[in-house]
Amino acid sequence: MAVTARRMAHREPRRHRTRLTRSSNANPRLPRTQPPPLPASPYIERRPSMSSEAQQGRRGTAVESNGVNPVPDAERRGKPRGLFAVWFAWNISILGISYGIFVFGLGLNVWQTIVAGTVGYLISATLVGILAVGGPRTGLPTLAQTRFAFGMKGNRLPAFFAYLSNMGWKVTIITLASTTGANLFAKLWPSVFADTDGSSATATIVLWFVLVLAVTMAVSVLGHELIMKVEVWISWVTGIMTVAFLGFMVPEIEWAHLGDTPAGGPLVFIGGIIMAMTLVGLGFLNYGGDFARYLPRDTPARGVIGWTVAGLSLPVVILLVVGALLVGGDSKLGAATASDPIGALTALLPMWFFVPFSIVIVISLVSAAITGMYSSGLALMAVGVPLRRSVTTSINAIIIAAGAFYLLFISTSFLATFQSFLSLIAVMMGTMGGIQLVDFVRQRRMGWNTDMSNPRGYGGRDGRWTAIVSLIIGTVVGLGLVTSSDPNFGKITGFLLTENGRTGVFGSSGLGIVIALALGAALYAILTFGLRLDPKPDYSLVTAGDAARGKGGLEAPTPDAAGRHAADRTER
């Protein structure tokens, strides 16, 4: 204001520059200016401005207005420890016991299952935690931040894969929540809600499916603030009830028979690690930063990683141990869990505890579905669908209904379909995650410049072939090296394996998933850093006239030495 007044007093002519040279997000330690709005774009959800007081009054009760745009600094809040409740609530579920039984079923003994599962969980959770750091640094959800590597239009490919991953998980979780609720009603009022054989009637399952889906949609549409509050309470309730459940399960362990199962070979052990990674972790790579992006920009990376890893791995490691001990003493439990992962375990409970615990199971599964539904709405926006997040969430509900119909009424084995789905998404998401981890080095060097997520000419690019080619090659090779026990999924896997390879240890171990991740990351690193095929942000369409009319981004300066050192301090 003072500068403007002096210019008017001295009648100085206005000086126009042909290009702006400052980015609002170029470096978290450098002074920032508020950029003018970008041109209207179907890829960027615009938000009406709102005063701080209005934001405070509406938190948790109104639909979240942030989509795939960077969260403004004024709306950043919280501590990294808040991430623990989100991931803990997501994974503190009886399903974690079933996961341990699934890993055991590969051919491991009890102790191998515990070690392999724990190692797999920790590795994959750490990858999620590292990718979550991009949330506070940029304010972007993970699938908008991948535009840095793939470009605006090129990002549609990994975002679509991520969207399929989200949908598959939501189908699985909501189906399990629906069947658990239906099983509860069938036991309480068999004359109304059960068939003649005592199983849940189809109408009962459909009723619960509609109820679960409606609750999931309502909370996920309201958005981040409400989710963060709800997850804290769900974590406490689910955690307490799960501890009580373990009190009933431990006496069921037949300790004398734990050594009856022979040990598996080295490749089988590696297969156990990889399967644990696919069960918990690799499927979360595409939205690791979604719940961290509201944290302040300078939040320490170690806090984001540490609390994410703790929330993800702590509950599933404990439940893995219990599952391995249970199935190690009773081999029949493994077969029962393969067809009904939750019902096989709740059948061991007395009725007085079965009722409240079934309710808690439904709540915990709905909790996981809510956070996933929220991220799947962001994923669909990142694909390029020009709709608001509330509308994309409604579209997701229709797709989930179709997938649940397949799982409930077409698939002949829950475990076969579930394992096949995990292999497919792990290949896709693992390759994308590997590329994104490598690109973090590039993003950090460039000061986490969010202009790179903009359209071409405003800081971003349409596509970066180095990342796209790396993703395609890694995914195709990975799919050719994994197998599927579901006949429908099996048509697109294992085409690089011989017949012996498909039926042998290599095919069952899932090594193709790790190969895909490593191959995609290595190719991208060679092209980007080895061959230096790394074009800088494109500001060709940004002019002073565009900025004056509210059309354009701001070019990021090269950080000076002080800026680089300041940015480095935020990572330690």
Features:
mainly alpha
Describe the structure.
By secondary structure, the protein is mainly α. Helix content is 63%, strand content 0%. It has 25 helices and no strands. It has helices at residues 2-9, 52-58, 82-91, 95-104, 110-132, 134-138, 142-145, 147-150, 156-188, 190-193, 202-222, 224-249, 266-279, 301-329, 332-339, 343-346, 351-383, 389-409, 414-445, 465-481, 499-503, 505-509, 511-530, 544-548, 561-571. The longest helix is centred in the N-terminal third of the chain and has 33 residues, at 156-188. The radius of gyration is 25 Å and the shape is globular. The two termini are 39 Å apart. Mean pLDDT is 78; it is low at 1-61 and 549-572.
Helix content: 55-70%
Q: Can you write the helix and strand succession as a string? A: HHHHHHHHHHHHHHHHHHHHHHHHH
Q: What's the main sheet like?
A: none
Q: Would you tell me the overall average pLDDT?
A: 78
Ends distance: 39 Å
The tally of helices reads 25
**What structural class do you assign from the helix and strand content?**
mainly alpha
Give the DSSP E fraction (strand runs of 2 or more residues).
under 5%
Shape: globular
Question: What's a quick, concise take on this entry?
Answer:
The chain is mostly helical and 572 residues long. The chain has helices spanning 2-9, 52-58, 82-91, 95-104, 110-132, 134-138, 142-145, 147-150, 156-188, 190-193, 202-222, 224-249, 266-279, 301-329, 332-339, 343-346, 351-383, 389-409, 414-445, 465-481, 499-503, 505-509, 511-530, 544-548, 561-571.
